[in-house]
Amino acid sequence: MLKVVIGEILPLALVVTISPLNIIPAILLLFTSRPLANALNFLAGFVGGVALLLGLLICLGTTIDLSPDSGRSTWTGILKLVLGTYLLGAAVR
Fold first, then answer.
1. In whole numbers, what is the pLDDT of the chain averaged over residues?
2. How far apart are CA 90 and CA 84, in angstroms?
């Protein structure tokens, strides 16, 4: 079971690792006046941000009941409505 999960997630992890969104800032940091200090700060911020987001999603995931017999929750509909309204407003702007 674990091998199947790792086999499904590994290609996605490789795409995220090789994506230009991670490579471009690393290259730009090489040309700053203090590349090592800036790169370490970028790395700490990146890892901290990912860890914080992961922690928030884990906390959110433990509060949601995903069993098949659970009914539809109201807050998910409200969240979708709020996000949809926000995206429409951003598209108009």
1. 84
2. 10
Question: Of 44, 45, 42, which Cα lies nearest the Cα of 28?
Answer: 42
CA distances from 69 to 4, 48, 64, 66, 73 (A): 27, 37, 13, 8, 12
Contact (CB, 8 A) for 35 and 29: yes
CA dist 58 and 52 (Å) reads 10
How many residues does this entry show for the chain? 93
Structure tokens at 62: 């433990």
What confidence tier does 82 reach under pLDDT thresholds 50, 70, 90?
A: very high
Q: Do 57 and 44 form a contact (C-beta atoms < 8 A)?
A: no
Secondary structure of residue 19 in the 3-state scheme: coil
Q: Residue 11 phi/psi, 5° resolution?
A: -60, -35
Could you give the CA distance from residue 1 to residue 81 in angstroms, rounded to a whole number? 37
